[in-house]
């Protein structure tokens, strides 16, 4: 009986095998037809890895080609925690909890062993490093320490630790540290531009990253680069500035010296070429080191010259005087009665620093008479005052390439009152930035033509070819006739320095023109002015007959008992910047040894 049953059992088993093989064949066909592409792609992903090849960020140079910002290759240490064995939550019911714990303890010990070797080499706490690696178990990438020193990188290489490697990253460096810091801006360690020209021209500077596809082994170690998987990076372009690092350094030093001497809170200086709008220097105090920007407060990183409008005070008077002359509301030599230092304008009482009787039109500006200017403002009226204020560019952006520029404060004409009529001519009820005032003053110096200020001379491609040419001056428009502009600049403003409030700006070898300013600081919420709080300023240019350089400096909150008038605080510092800049540029002297003034050659 048993011998008869065996063939039946074998036959039944054979059919089961046939059915199983058939089911397997159907599954294989199904997988081949419907999932082949997905599985092949999955296998490729397991065997291949895409590595990003970073592009090199372009340089920023000054007008003479001196490097102000560049990128260097620095080593960074990373780990692949997945290569280091790590504890897993085992779901196999045949594995006991004791076996899981034993396995976990062994793997934790491996992490600790690596951390104990790697930590001291990088100045890291081994215990914390082991915990960090353990927390990232199963992941493919972890930054252990970025931008390490060469000595640290060599120490890591010598350890030859499994799952630990070195990648070279691009780090932004600023060879001149704090020079033109507010203009250049900075890039963080991740390569992200955060401020200044670095941010404004990030698209031109950063370039385009490339990539390569590598074939890896079972532990994800690169074996070779796939032939079809390489795309080279495109390095970033370069930025050439109008800034001259030598002039920038001189301006920064003189500004800092003035602030120290008068124990001021802050200040700004702008150096321009009046006829082209090129900015040769732009500086602020407080400042910061671009290579260590994160350790400075945000207030130190504020570009005050373009972002912090203040009342200009008497430096604003030349704009109103030129408007009065242009509109024939006065004439050269006109006697203007200044009421001996007290003038009633409606219910408002105006004062001068000295009681003047009758002054000529020129003397009103030379002696900086508030009353004389108020009378000129009344003759012009609010409509003309507002029109000229806007024509000179106040209340709108200058268009300089630096990000974050403030437009200043010019109230709409409908909000002007009779107080405005006498306040504007004295530089009150208006707020301007340093770059605005320097640009507007350049229009008077430049025979009445307003130019757009520029800090970028050009953008170059990575190979040095020109991508964007910014060397050509940009004319905004004519705001004054040549006759009026030359009368104000070459006659009256020369006398301000020669015999008026700006005498401390005079140079022995060059005839200087300029205007002082001493403005009270208004409360932020309105309602008058802070006691003993001033902005001391001076704007000057030389040589007077053909101004090659203009310098505007403002010093915020000097200590009153030490000195606070613009002619005391800012004028001497401007004189030094002018002297150093003119000598550096090789401008021939215009004052002979016997005191004779020689007219500079017209360019």
Per CATH, the architecture of the largest domain is 3-Layer(aba) Sandwich
Q: Tell me about the biggest sheet?
A: 7 strands, mixed
Query: How many domains would you count in the coordinates?
Result: 2
Which structural class should the secondary elements be placed in?
alpha+beta
Residue-averaged pLDDT:
88
Per CATH, the superfamily of the largest domain is DD-peptidase/beta-lactamase superfamily
Give a structural overview.
This protein starts with a helix and ends in an 18-residue tail after the last helix. The radius of gyration is 36 Å and the shape is elongated. Strands 2, 3, 4, 5, 8, 16 and 17 form a seven-stranded mixed sheet that branches. It has a five-stranded antiparallel sheet with strand order 10-9-21-20-19, with helices on both faces. The longest helix is centred in the N-terminal third of the chain and has 46 residues, at 2-47. It folds into two domains: 75-173, Penicillin-binding protein 2a (Domain 2), CATH 3.90.1310.10; 245-585, Beta-lactamase. With 603 residues, the protein is of the alpha+beta class. α8 (245-261) runs antiparallel to α17 and α10 packs across α12 (370-391). The chain is 36% helix and 22% strand. It has 17 helices and 21 strands.
Topology readout:
Layout: H1 2-47, E1 48-53, E2 60-61, E3 67-79, H2 97-122, H3 126-135, E4 142-145, H4 150-159, E5 164-173, H5 181-184, H6 196-200, H7 202-205, E6 210-216, E7 222-231, E8 238-241, H8 245-261, E9 266-272, E10 279-285, H9 304-307, H10 317-326, E11 335-337, E12 342-345, E13 348-351, E14 358-360, H11 361-366, H12 370-391, H13 418-423, H14 434-445, E15 449-451, E16 456-460, E17 466-469, E18 475-478, H15 482-499, E19 513-522, E20 529-542, E21 549-556, H16 566-569, H17 571-585
Parallel strand pairs: 2-8
Antiparallel strand pairs: 1-6, 2-3, 3-4, 3-5, 6-7, 8-16, 9-10, 9-21, 11-14, 12-13, 15-18, 16-17, 19-20, 20-21
